[in-house]
Each structure stands twice: as structure tokens, then as C-alpha cells.
Design brief:
- This protein has a single domain, classed as Rossmann fold (3-Layer(aba) Sandwich), CATH 3.40.50.720.
- By secondary structure, the protein is α/β, with parallel strands linked by helices.
- Strand 2, helix 2 and strand 3 form a beta-alpha-beta unit.
- Helices cover 38% and strands 12% of the residues.
- The protein has a 7-stranded parallel beta sheet with strand order 3-2-1-4-5-6-7, with helices on both faces.
Length: 285
């Protein structure tokens, strides 16, 4: 009769299921709208947190604001393999291990190391430029691969081995929410571009692959799929969104903290290769 691994024989006391004491987390895109909230939640749960962002100054400022003893802010360009490896090494040098990777960085028209033209980023599918598509692949998909490789190498060889990785998916866009919406960009329409929708969907395939590839090594990999987060959107957009949402509203930027802590803690210890959708019921229709 096959024996259960030791880790399966020692249940975590219920009050401690969501605690992360003694663990180290790296959050990519950590200085952004949601990344900041994730860093706050991880700290409150007891983790030490490395805040990586292409805006290095922003990451350092956030680390100083939150907790100078238990955080490290650094510049991290997920499209640059040397930058990814350096960030991972600095995390381990500071905190001696790496237990959690939150692969949160994504390409947006406002973020990144280089500004995108809104007209190019939001262009119709028929005229979408290959270079913009490739940039999205580089950040949203290849960036996740590079970060997973670097973190995985560390998780495999530390003592004890193992860890948790979190990736990000997306529900299929409903372009009707943009009907009648005034674009915030003078020279562009406003929509969910093909580059974002397709690359974030591909992340789910990467999640399942890594979950089965590293399962035997006690590395769990799951995806979190959030939905629309209110960020001073156009009134027409909010009306369109609310009409289609069973909960009748957009999410607050702090409402994904619980899902995040569930996925990176022992509360989800028997969960891997899954996609947790937190969308206010959007996909229930």
C-alpha cells in the first residue's frame, strides 16, 4: 500500500490556515492598482514581501511605506531574463528563501517600461499591429514563464522544497460594455484589445502545465481570474457594466485579497491547476 507523504499527514490548525508566517512572497507588478493590495494582504498575513515592478522607484517607495523590515522593493522587468533572475536572487539574499510567486504584472496602455500608443493598443482586430501583439506576449505570457522558471528553480532546491505560484487569467470580454463610452484617449477607441484577452487566456494553459509538471515537487500552481475593478471609469461604462453584472456593481480594488490569500496559503493545500474566478457572477449568465 502506497504511503502518504509526510506533508499530507500533518494538518494545519484551522485558525492558522490563512497565515503566512515565515514565508516569503514575490509580487510582480507589485506597485500597481491590485499589486499594492496584494502586498498589503500578504504582509498582514505574516509574510515577508518582495515588491517587484518595472517602476522601480514606485516599488521602493511602497516598500518603505508598508514595512521597511519585512519588505524589499526593486525594479523588475518581467520581459528581461537577467532582471527576473536578479530580482529572484536579491529576494533570496534578503529573506533566505522564496515560497510564493504572485505573477501579477501585465501590459496596459498606461504601464510598462515604454509607453504604448492608445490608438495602436486599442486598434480593431483587423488592423492590429504585430509589434503591439508581440509586446503583449512578451509581458503577459513570456514574462510569466520567465518568473515561474526563476522562482521554480529556487523552490525546487530550498529546504524544505516546495512553494505556491499564482497566475492571472481573464474572462472572455463583452465588448458591449464599451457601447456609448467616451474614450479617455483622444486618438483611440476604448475596448478590451485582442492582445490582452488572448495572452491572459493562454496563461491558464501555462498554469495547468506547471501544476502537473511540479506537483510531485510540492509546488502548487493556480490561477486567479478577477473582473472589472472600479478606477474612476466613465459613467456610461459603469452603467453598461452594472447592467450585465449579477451583483450590480464593479469590484473594489481590495476585494481580491481574500481569494489571493486562499490560493497562496494552506487553506488551498489540495488545490492545484485550478482557475478561481471572482467576477461578481459575470460568468453565471
Amino acid at each position: 500500500m502506497a504511503e502518504q507523504p509526510a506533508s499530507a499527514l500533518n494538518p494545519v490548525p484551522f485558525p492558522d490556515l490563512f497565515r503566512l508566517d515565515g514565508r516569503v512572497a514575490l509580487v510582480t507588478g507589485g506597485a500597481g492598482l491590485l499589486g499594492r493590495r496584494y502586498c498589503e494582504a500578504l504582509l498582514q498575513a505574516g509574510a515577508r514581501v518582495v515588491i517587484g515592478d518595472v517602476d522601480g522607484a514606485g516599488a521602493e517607495a511602497l516598500a518603505a511605506e508598508l514595512d521597511t523590515e519585512r519588505t524589499l522593493g526593486l525594479k523588475l522587468d518581467v520581459t528581461n531574463e537577467a532582471s527576473v533572475n536578479d530580482a529572484t536572487q536579491r529576494a533570496v539574499q534578503r529573506f533566505k528563501r522564496l515560497d510564493i510567486l504572485v505573477n501579477n504584472a501585465a501590459l496596459t496602455v498606461r504601464g510598462g517600461s515604454e509607453r504604448l500608443s492608445p490608438a495602436d493598443y486599442f486598434a480593431p482586430f483587423e488592423s492590429y499591429k504585430r509589434e503591439v501583439w508581440q509586446r503583449a506576449v512578451d509581458v503577459n505570457l513570456t514574462g510569466m514563464l520567465l518568473c515561474a522558471q526563476a522562482a521554480g528553480r529556487q523552490m525546487l532546491h530550498q529546504d524544505p522544497p516546495g512553494g505556491v505560484m499564482l497566475t492571472y487569467g481573464v474572462v472572455a470580454p463583452d465588448q458591449r460594455v464599451y457601447d456609448g463610452v467616451r474614450s479617455p484617449y483622444a486618438d483611440a477607441t476604448f475596448n478590451t484589445p485582442v492582445s490582452y484577452a488572448v495572452t491572459k487566456t493562454a496563461v491558464l494553459g501555462l498554469t495547468r502545465y506547471l501544476a502537473t509538471y511540479w506537483g510531485k515537487n510540492n509546488i502548487r500552481v493556480n490561477a486567479l481570474t478577477p473582473h472589472g475593478v472600479y478606477d474612476n471609469h466613465d459613467d456610461a461604462f459603469v452603467r453598461n457594466f452594472v447592467y450585465r453584472s449579477p451583483l450590480g456593481r464593479m469590484a473594489r480594488n481590495d476585494e481580491y485579497r481574500g481569494a489571493l490569500l486562499f490560493l497562496v496559503s494552506d487553506a488551498s493545500s489540495y488545490m492545484t491547476g485550478a482557475n478561481l474566478i471572482v467576477d461578481g457572477g459575470w460568468t453565471a449568465w
